[in-house]
Design goal:
The chain is mainly alpha-helical. It is built from 8 helices and no strands. This is Nitrite reductase MB.
């Protein structure tokens, strides 16, 4: 159990192993730019389907939590900066519209994890778009991490296991850092 042996040829020598120590025909090596294993990407893709079915409520819950923890950020949003109470925020069509837009961006990123160049380019473009927001600072992106995780946990309920929490934390960290790279213009050119 847990032991891997190299196959031997007729001459008795071990067959060539690829650079990852796997037999020929094994899945390709994981792209190091995405900090998830193939199994983790599969798990989040499967789990995300439940989030995608509840995009509105998850997004609104995320923003309500964001504003509870960071009241100063509300001033950045012209259309709903006047919404002081939780109830007003939960009922606001303007906030819902923005929340769904952000959730759609997260959806695009998570659904493109298999195409690393496309995923990174998309997240960089999201970061660049935020340069237009007067007074926006890159560190504000990090303030989304905990509200995002809390909203996902609320939506997934008992499907939000310790393992899924770890995968979602890794994923949102990757997404936020890549968006920040786009915002700050520090992204590297993707080599094909």
């Amino acid at each position: 159990m847990g032991c891997t042996f190299a196959k031997t040829s007729k001459s008795g020598s071990a067959q060539d192993l690829n650079h990852a120590g796997e037999a020929p025909g094994a899945p390709p090596a994981q792209d190091p730019r995405i900090p998830l294993t193939v199994r983790q990407k599969f798990s989040i893709s499967k789990s995300w389907k439940a989030i995608a079915r509840a995009m509105d409520q998850t997004g609104v819950a995320m923003f309500v939590k964001l504003f509870e923890e960071n009241k100063e950020l509300l001033a950045l949003f012209e259309k709903f900066k006047h919404l002081e109470s939780r109830e007003a925020q939960e009922e606001s069509e303007e906030l819902k519209e923005h929340a769904v837009s952000v959730m759609n961006s997260l959806d695009e990123a998570i659904n493109s994890l298999e195409n690393v160049d496309q995923c990174i380019d998309y997240l960089h473009s999201v970061g660049k778009r935020h340069r237009k927001i007067n007074g926006f600072k890159s560190e504000y992106f990090w303030k989304m991490e905990d509200p995002f995780l809390a909203a996902v946990k609320e939506t997934l309920e008992d499907r939000y296991t310790e393992n899924m929490e770890s995968i979602y934390k890794t994923t949102i960290h990757f997404i936020i850092q890549t968006v920040i790279d786009g915002f700050e213009g520090t992204q590297q050119k993707n080599s094909a």
